[in-house]
Specification:
Helix content of chain A: 25-40%
Strand content of chain A: 25-35%
Strand content of chain B: under 5%
Radius of gyration of chain A: 18 Å
Strand order of the largest sheet of chain A: 6-7-8-3-9-10
Order of helices and strands of chain A: EEEHEEHEHHHEHEHEEHH
Number of helices of chain A: 9
Shape of chain A: globular
Number of helices of chain B: 9
Largest sheet of chain B: none
CATH superfamily of chain B: MetI-like
Distance between the termini of chain B: 55 Å
Radius of gyration of chain B: 21 Å
CATH topology of chain B: MetI-like fold
CATH class of chain B: Mainly Alpha
Distance between the termini of chain A: 34 Å
Structural class of chain A: alpha/beta
Order of helices and strands of chain B: HHHHHHHHH
Number of strands of chain B: 0
Number of domains of chain B: 1
Helix content of chain B: over 70%
Oligomer: heterodimer
Chain lengths: ~240, ~220
């Protein structure tokens, strides 16, 4: 069954139409990579999925239920999000960043939350940084903490909004490795990225968005090697 | 020029009493002002009609003289509530309401200075808007607004001299009394100025220390 379904999604900022009717669905356990030129609307699309941008029209269903302002907080705790600029809470330690939402939203008791946080830090290779503050970490380390923070809510879907775009080149690998592990464990992931290698290696499907429209979607090898649409061909010829 | 300090020296204890009241009034008013300012600063940023209430309050207070506000409370309110308002109470109310409006603008600016990504991260984790505000935004905003809050404290400490106009015996009122009794206005007012200076310099030092302590993790 599809975990996320998107029907005719439109988003308009004042006079600017950013999304012009996108329809797609994401299966449980699927890794979907969204690519497209800058300004194409791919980040806006991702941000509409958990209503950080409220769609102008159209419908999004999570596990069959339409997302509305009323059930939004319930849905958001099932959807983790990782941002380009990490957005860790600078006034809280790494441990507190990770345990905050489980304690506050899921009402997990403190000991359990802390223990789980250590497990997640272990997983992203930063167990020794539990008591550090975000500004004491490198960009790559901050992003790995951000992934652990999102995972702490035990989400069913993870959204990644250009997770490596703000990183120095030598730190991209460590973040992608964590994401690859996640994909192999069967996490449902929607990833906006320019990392075509990642798309090829772990993507089940690649969606190409241009000018607010879903132009083409296909398995990575198929889309990269044999793009059907002229716009996809033109975009890929510039980046590959 | 002959200074007669001995006369003034004997009135220092009286002036100190006044200074103490000045400090007390200001501290209470700023404390209440921070509570009012936080509430109205958040209201000012809300998308509900509450926003207009906050705008009206802030603009009215900032656009009218504090002395007039003090008179409205001290002379005006008794006719509304049909009983006299003691000068001390009137002073606390007027100074608090005044401070609240300025603090509201400080809080508003502090909240707006926190990157949008902080709210987005909190919301994406399933926190409610209120939880995002209290756990993520306000703690960071308050750290940043410590210096302007210190300035507000100092400004209000100086402005509190206006409550001498309703016969409350804070520092300026005490000085008027002492000056009338000793006929040494220059010495008396000079000592008063020094007392204000000591208080304001001390406050700004405390604020500076506080600012440094809070910088952890930023």
């Amino acid at each position: 069954m599809a975990i996320l379904e998107v029907f005719d999604l439109h988003k308009q900022f004042k006079d600017l139409k950013v999304l012009k009717g996108i329809t797609t669905s994401i299966e449980q356990g699927e890794v979907v990579v969204i690519i497209g030129p800058s300004g194409s609307g791919k980040s806006t699309f991702l941000r509409c999925l958990n209503f950080l941008e409220v769609p102008t029209s159209g419908e999004i269903r999570f596990e069959g239920n339409r997302i509305t302002p009323d059930n939004l907080n319930m849905v958001r705790r099932e959807m983790g999000m990782v941002f380009q600029r990490f957005n860790l809470f600078p006034h809280k330690s790494v441990l507190d960043n990770i345990t905050l939402a489980p304690k506050l939203v899921r009402k997990v008791d403190s000991d359990t939350a802390v223990q789980q946080a250590y497990e997640l830090l272990q997983k992203v290779g930063l167990r020794d940084k539990a008591h550090a503050y975000p500004d004491q970490l490198s960009g790559g380390q901050q992003q790995r903490v951000a992934i652990a923070r999102a995972l702490a809510m035990r989400p069913k879907v993870m959204l990644f909004d250009e997770p490596t775009s703000a990183l120095d080149p030598e730190m991209i690998g460590e973040v992608l490795d964590v994401m690859k592990d996640l994909a192999r464990e069967g996490m449902t992931m929607i990833v906006v990225t320019h990392e075509m290698g990642f798309a090829r290696e772990v993507g089940d499907r690649v969606i190409f968005i241009d000018d607010g429209q879903l132009v083409e979607e296909n398995a990575p090898d198929e889309l990269f090697n044999n793009p059907q649409h002229p716009r996809t061909q033109s975009f890929l010829s510039k980046i590959l | 020029m002959d200074f007669q300090w001995s006369l003034v020296w004997s009135s220092v204890p009286t002036l100190l009493e006044g200074a103490l009241l000045t400090l007390q009034l200001t501290t209470i008013a700023v404390a209440i002002g921070i509570v009012l300012g936080t509430i109205f600063g958040i209201m000012r940023l809300s998308s509900t009609p509450l926003r207009y209430l906050a705008v009206a309050y802030i603009d009215f207070i900032r656009g009218t003289p504090l002395l007039v506000q003090i008179f409205i409370i001290y002379y005006g309110m008794p006719s509304l509530i049909k009983q006299p308002v003691p000068p001390y109470i009137a002073a606390v109310i007027a100074l608090s309401i005044n401070s609240g409006a300025y603090v509201a603008e400080i809080v508003r600016a502090g909240i707006q200075s926190i990157e949008k990504g902080q709210t987005e991260a909190a919301l994406s984790l399933g926190l409610s808007k209120t939880a995002a505000m209290t756990h993520i935004i306000l703690p960071q905003a308050f750290k940043r607004i410590v210096p302007p809050l210190g300035n507000e404290f100092i400004a209000l400490l100086k402005d509190s001299s206006l409550v001498s106009a309703i016969a409350l015996e804070e520092l300026v009122r005490k000085a008027q009394i002492v000056s009338g009794r000793t006929f040494r206005p220059f010495e008396v007012w000079f000592v008063v100025a020094i007392m204000y200076l000591i208080m304001t310099v001390t406050i700004s030092q405390i604020v500076r220390i506080l600012e440094k302590r809070l910088r952890v993790g930023e």
